[in-house]
Inverse folding.
């Protein structure tokens, strides 16, 4: 059997090995940590299980849903979603609901919000370059300040003005037309795919493994190991030896300080690009190293509190918008799955802190962080201090690849260099510096594996968002969605939402419909007259006397038949032309409504994308 080497046992690395196994290749997976799952792992502490930030399983790519169900079928739960925003001592429904938000903020604030919204709609800021302008133009300055600014800046650590507007627009524009239509028609999205797998919309519900996301990746690892594809944990790859455009081997440091070298015919890497470039031996040219050094990452830590209370709050998570509270979000893991806690009389809360590893907070001892977390929860009014029985802290470096102004150029330089290594592919989140979800990481890995057996997919162009386009017409050579060529038109460009709506609500050609009706009516008139004339000769009686009232000069004679045919055709043309015009107007109005309601709905969920 042919042999591949995979760097990283997160969703990308494990999926790559899983796909390779199906294609008749063996892999060795090297994982730096002592646990698999990467950022999508589940950590266990005293039987309490928690994520690195709650992980919803959601994909519109059928292939990914199939893989999830294949790995973990009966342990995959469908869970209700509930989330709120904490602001100014109060909880607000999220996605935002106008009545709830205005009731919570009071009449005076409601007035200010209304005025600032009206101002933003009447005088939008142009050009719309950054996230602040993007949100302000849609919600007004006041709502932006209350519900968007603080949380977004907590997550990214940079002012909203320095975050590109493209990022928000990109997340909004990649809507599912099916979802939009379903929402417009029946008011609720969701359903099952052709294999009966549940398709969720993330708005009301999501899928989640019974024991957290790590369960999926531990199961995947077990399947791989049983079939002769071992994961070696505690092995940090720090050298990638290459010659003449081919990688020959990687060498790594084990947790006990030993060194080991691994050869293979093909390599798939999900390690962060910055480290990867520095690991290459020989090193790439200086400009490539400089570009890699320009890629930055936001770090993350979670404080988990074990609380002696059965029910603390009903949400899966709450966004914390108050600027005097450092945590950005708080998860209640038993609401994700009741199996996440070993004792139903207790709860475990995951408090999320977004930071740089150079921040003081990063180096605080765990006890101090647990105290901070407890005090913040008390300040939020969620718990009493004495209810906290225990806690733990998990730090995750490079949780978020940062999309600053310089990253596109840096990424392009790095990628261009990596493309010169013919048997080496990079996949996944930090492997492609892509702010993604698991499905994207997995899909890049599936296509990298298929490339190894002769396919020619551009793994850098895999875009699960663009695959949000329609079922059916997105079929590709391989029949899967999410492959770039699957969603692109003949010019190599993915259609926009407007183009998809235009295609779904294609207008009728007015002249063509006019001509068609003209032919039908004209012919009908002629045939009817001709049948009477041939059958009854001059004695047609009262038959066809009605058209005589409408068509000038019409009677049942051969001359009248020709006149009636011409007049019926002219009348038919106008009927068809007007009918098509009316129908197009109605459809345009309906398409506008569908688009507006879909975009509004998605815009209201922008916090989920931050
Ligand atoms: C707070 C938060 C919430 C999220 N929520 C969701 C969600 O709700 N739904 C969702 O689908 N996604 C979510 N994500 C995204 C999801 O975590 C990632 O998309 C996914 O884990 C990326 O998988 P990956 O394999 O590409 O990378 P990773 O998960 O980063 O895995 C890479 C692996 O490679 C290993 N590695 C790195 N360097 C080396 C090396 N030199 N040698 C050996 N091994 C190495 C790492 O230890 C790691 O195990 C969330 C992310 C965060 C931070």
């Amino acid at each position: 059997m042919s042999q591949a080497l995979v760097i990283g046992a997160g969703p990308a690395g494990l999926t790559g090995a899983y796909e390779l196994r199906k294609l008749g290749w063996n892999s060795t997976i090297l994982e730096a940590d002592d646990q698999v799952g990467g950022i999508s792992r589940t950590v266990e502490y005293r039987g309490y299980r928690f994520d690195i930030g709650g992980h919803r399983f959601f994909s519109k790519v059928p292939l990914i849903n199939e893989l999830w169900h294949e790995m973990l079928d009966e342990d995959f739960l469908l869970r209700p979603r509930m989330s709120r925003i904490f602001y100014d001592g109060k909880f607000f429904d999220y996605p935002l609901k106008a009545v709830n938000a205005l009731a919570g903020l009071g009449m005076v604030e409601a007035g200010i919000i209304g005025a600032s919204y009206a101002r933003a709609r009447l005088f939008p800021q142009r050009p719309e370059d950054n996230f602040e302008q993007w949100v302000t133009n849609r919600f007004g300055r006041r709502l932006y300040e209350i519900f968007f600014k603080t949380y977004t800046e907590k997550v990214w650590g940079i002012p909203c003005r320095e975050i590109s507007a493209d990022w928000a627009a990109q997340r909004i524009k990649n809507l599912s037309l099916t979802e939009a239509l379903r929402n417009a028609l029946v008011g609720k999205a969701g359903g099952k795919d052709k294999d009966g797998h549940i398709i969720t919309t993330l708005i009301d519900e999501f899928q989640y493994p019974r024991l957290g996301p790590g369960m999926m990746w531990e199961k995947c690892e077990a399947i791989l190991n049983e079939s002769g594809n071992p994961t070696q944990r505690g092995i940090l790859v720090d050298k990638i030896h290459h010659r003449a455009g081919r990688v020959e081997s990687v060498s790594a440091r084990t947790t006990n300080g030993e060194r080991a070298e691994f050869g293979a015919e093909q390599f798939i890497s999900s390690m962060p690009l910055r480290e990867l470039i520095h690991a290459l031996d020989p090193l790439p040219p200086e400009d490539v190293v400089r570009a890699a050094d320009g890629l930055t990452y936001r770090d993350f830590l979670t404080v988990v509190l074990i609380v002696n209370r059965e029910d603390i709050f009903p949400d899966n998570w709450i966004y914390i918008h108050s600027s005097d509270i450092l945590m950005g979000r708080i998860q209640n893991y038993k609401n994700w799955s009741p199996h996440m806690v070993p004792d139903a009389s207790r709860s475990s809360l995951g408090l999320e802190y977004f930071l740089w590893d150079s921040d003081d907070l990063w180096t605080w001892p765990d006890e101090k962080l647990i105290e901070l977390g407890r005090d913040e929860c008390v300040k939020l009014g969620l718990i009493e201090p004495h209810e906290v029985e225990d806690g733990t802290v998990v730090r995750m470096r490079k949780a978020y690849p940062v999309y600053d102004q310089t990253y596109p150029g840096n990424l392009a330089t790095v990628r261009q260099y990596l493309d010169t290594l013919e048997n080496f592919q990079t996949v996944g989140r930090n492997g492609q510096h892509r702010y993604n979800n698991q499905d994207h990481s997995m899909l890049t890995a599936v296509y990298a594996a298929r490339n190894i057996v002769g396919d020619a997919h551009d793994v850098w162009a895999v875009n699960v968002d663009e695959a949000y386009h329609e079922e059916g017409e997105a079929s590709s050579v391989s029949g899967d969605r999410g492959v770039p060529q699957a969603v692109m038109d003949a010019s190599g460009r993915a259609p926009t939402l407007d183009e998809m709506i235009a295609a779904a609500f294609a207008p009728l050609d007015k002249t063509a419909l006019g001509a068609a009706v003209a032919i039908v009516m004209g012919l009908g008139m002629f045939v009817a007259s001709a049948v009477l004339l041939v059958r009854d000769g001059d004695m047609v009686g009262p038959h066809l006397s009605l058209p005589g009232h409408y068509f000038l000069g019409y009677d049942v004679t051969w001359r009248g038949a020709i006149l009636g045919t011409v007049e019926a055709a002219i009348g038919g043309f106008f009927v068809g032309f007007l009918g098509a015009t009316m129908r197009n107007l109605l459809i345009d109005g309906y398409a506008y409504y569908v688009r507006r309601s879909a975009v509004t709905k998605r815009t209201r969920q922008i916090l989920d994308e931050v």
Q: What stands out?
A: The CA atoms of residues 62 and 194 lie 9 Å apart. Residues 7-13, 30-33, 38-40, 52-56, 236-237, 270-271, 275, 300, 399-400, 428-431, 436-438, 441 surround flavin-adenine dinucleotide (CB under 6 Å).
